[in-house]
Amino acid sequence: MEIGILGPEGTFSETAAMLWLKEGGRIENFAIKYYETIFDVSESIVKKEVNYGIVPIENSLEGSVGDTLDVLSSENADEMQIVGEVLVPIRICLLFNGSFPEIKKIVSHHHALAQCKQFIRERLKGVALKSVDSTASAAKLAAQSEQIAALASAESAKMYGVNILAEDVQDKDSITRFVVLSSSGIKAAPTGKDKTSILLSVKERPGALYEVLGEFALRGLNLTKIESRPSKRALGDYMFYIDCEGHLEEAEMQEALKGVEKKAAMLKILGTYPMAIRK
C-alpha cells in the first residue's frame, strides 16, 4: 500500500498518515511518497501512483485549507472520494541553530506562521517572514542556514538536526483535520459515527440555500461544516462545501440528499466515512 502526502519527511501530514495507519491496523507493508503540493498529491491518486492521499483540510484556529477545497471541487474530484479523516493536535516549535538575536528570517507554512502571530510579535518583532510549502521544508532550510529559523514540529527538528529554541509557540492549542482520499471506489460500511461530505451549488434566487439546508434540519441531521468557495466561473458564483453527520446508506441521509438534489443546481457526493474521534 502506498500513501501520498505533502513532503518532505517530517510534515504534520506524515504524522496524520502514521496515525491513520495505526488506528486502522495498517501499520505493516506500506510506503509513503512525498509530494510538493496538495494538487500533486491529488494527481498521484488519479494517476494510480498511490492508493491513498492524505491532505489537510482545516485547522481549528486558521480555518479551511483552500488548496484542498479547490482540489475537491476540481475535475479530479470525480475520480476520487474521501474515505477517512484524521485529527492531529498541532504543537509548533521554533527551530534554530543559534540564539534569538541571530535570527534574520522565519520560514514556515503560511498556516503555521498565522498560528504563531503573538509569539512572533512578542519575541521576534521585525524579523522577516517567508511562507514555504510545508513545515518540514522550513526545518530543512533552517538546518542549512545560520540566519533562518523555522516554525515546525519537534519531530522535524530531530530529523534535520536543528535545535529547538522554543516549544509550543502556537498562540493557542489547535487541531488540524486531514482527509484520506482514494480512487479505489472503496465504500466504508456504516459505523454509527460517520460523516458525509458533499459539494453543491444553488439556484440564483432568494432563499435557495435556506431551502437546501432545510432538508438536513428537517431530518435532524447535524451539519459540522459549511463553507462557500468561488466556483471560478463568474464573480459572485459560489459552491458550498458541507460536512454532515451520518452515513450515505442511512435512510435519513438518503432522503435529505434526494431533497437537496431537487432544489440544488448541482450536487456532488465527496465521500462517506467514519468520523475521527477527538482524543
UniProtKB/TrEMBL annotation:
> Does Flavoprotein appear among the keywords?
no
Query: By its UniProt entry, which SUPFAM superfamilies does this protein fall under?
Result: ACT-like, Periplasmic binding protein-like II
Catalysed reaction per UniProt? prephenate + H(+) = 3-phenylpyruvate + CO2 + H2O
| All copies of domain Prephenate dehydratase, residue ranges | 2-183
Ranges for domain ACT come to: 197-274
Molecular function as annotated in GO = prephenate dehydratase activity
- Listed GO biological process terms: L-phenylalanine biosynthetic process
Q: In which pathway does it act?
A: Amino-acid biosynthesis; L-phenylalanine biosynthesis; phenylpyruvate from prephenate: step 1/1
An annotated GO cellular component of this protein is:
cytoplasm
Instruction: List the keywords (alphabetical).
Output: Amino-acid biosynthesis, Aromatic amino acid biosynthesis, Lyase, Phenylalanine biosynthesis
Instruction: Tell me which domain of life the UniProt entry assigns to the organism this sequence originates from.
Output: Archaea
Q: EC number(s) in its UniProt entry?
A: 4.2.1.51
Note the InterPro entries from the entry. ACT-like_dom_sf, ACT_dom, Preph_deHydtase, Preph_deHydtase_CS
Question: In its keyword annotation, does this UniProt entry include Transmembrane?
Answer: no
Please state what class of enzyme this protein is. lyase
Protein name listed in UniProt? prephenate dehydratase
Q: What is the lineage of its organism?
A: Archaea, Methanobacteriati, Methanobacteriota, Stenosarchaea group, Methanomicrobia
- The encoding gene: pheA
